[in-house]
Design brief:
The complex is a heterodimer.
Chain A (H helix, E strand, L loop, with lengths): L1 H4 L11 H14 L3 H5 L5 H31 L3 H13 L1
Chain B lengths: L1 H28 L2 H11 L3 H24 L4 H19 L5 H11 L2 H10 L4 H16 L4 H13 L8 H38 L3 H7 L1
Classes of the chains: A mainly alpha, B mainly alpha.
């Protein structure tokens, strides 16, 4: 029924609920929360909310890491940076 | 020692890139399902090496710029590192996703001009947004109002994804989250390695390697 409604909007993409729930499930699988994974019937709104907060926390983590890296790099020279990269690759 | 290491690192990166391009060509030649399956793992394996080499260049340039000009406070430098890291991440996405294109586009155009335009723009787009959202909601019938609100929040968080349809937004978010996870892993590993190396050098144990590097 929802797909029949979509014919009014140009019909370029008939988006089914199944497709959407599939994408939401994939998104849910990425989230670190174990409690979300336990249920199959997690409401999509909750998944989206968790996703928003997760993205924000990830971005904050990147900010902190980049601050830390800038401090570390300020005292390091080029060869030390290269050595660090190679070492982190091997770890 | 330093010259040989610097020559091998770009060469190794080139070899990696060639191998990855072949893999991508094979992946593209196969069906779309195969490509979609390869994508989740993409952010977890070889891409990491590619983004490492580009981050190395970024890190070295920042070190040189920071040390030569002694630019401002640590916050400025931290933000510069963050932006360069985001740019490297977007480049690694190879322009296949909306968010990566948005990051690169905002860097290429003049920063402040875009921001000023966006500051003025919100007067008009919200009305368009509401109209578009309501039209899309009635058209697709798949995103209920509370979902649409959360979806709009997501659209704000993910760069360049404000006007996408719901399923596209979900795909972009998935890719963006994986990319962010990889970025965090990479930077954390780099920070660990750097602190370990600086700890070693400061303790004076690696005197021989320092002299051979010079």
């Amino acid at each position: 029924m929802s797909s029949r409604r979509s014919r009014s909007s140009g019909g370029a993409s008939r988006i089914s609920d199944e497709q959407i729930s599939d994408l939401v499930a994939k998104l849910q699988a990425l989230l670190p929360e174990a409690r979300l994974r336990s249920n199959d019937r997690v409401p999509s709104a909750r998944v989206l909310q968790e996703t928003c907060s997760y993205i924000r926390s990830l971005q904050r983590e990147v900010d902190d890491l980049s601050d830390r890296l800038s401090e570390l790099l300020a005292t390091a020279d080029v060869s030390t940076a290269q050595a660090a990269v190679i070492r982190s690759l091997l770890m | 020692m330093a010259s040989t290491s610097s020559s091998t690192t770009p060469a190794a990166a080139e070899v990696e890139e060639r191998g990855r391009k072949r893999k991508r060509a094979d992946g593209a030649g196969s069906t779309a399902a195969g490509g979609a399956e390869a994508q989740p793992s993409k952010w977890r394996t070889r891409r990491e090496h590619e983004i490492y080499s580009s981050k190395l260049l970024e890190a070295i340039r920042l070190v040189r710029a920071g040390s030569s000009s002694s630019s401002g406070s640590g916050a400025t430098r931290g933000r510069a590192v963050r932006e360069a890291a985001d740019r490297a991440l977007a480049v690694a996405a190879r322009g296949r996703t909306h968010w990566s294109r948005a990051i690169l586009a905002s860097r290429r155009r003049r920063f402040q001009a875009v921001r000023r335009a966006r500051l003025r723009a919100p007067a008009t787009p919200p009305s368009r947004h509401n109209a578009a959202a309501s039209a899309a909601a009635t058209g697709q019938g798949s995103s209920a109002p509370p979902l649409a609100e959360k979806a709009r929040m997501l659209g704000w968080l993910v760069p360049g994804c404000r006007r996408l349809s719901f399923p596209t937004l979900l795909e972009e978010t998935t890719d963006y989250i994986e990319a962010l996870q990889m970025q965090v892993r990479t930077m954390a590993a780099l920070a660990e390695a750097l602190s370990a190396i600086s700890a070693n050098s400061s303790s004076g144990g690696a005197g021989s390697s320092n002299s051979s590097a010079a």
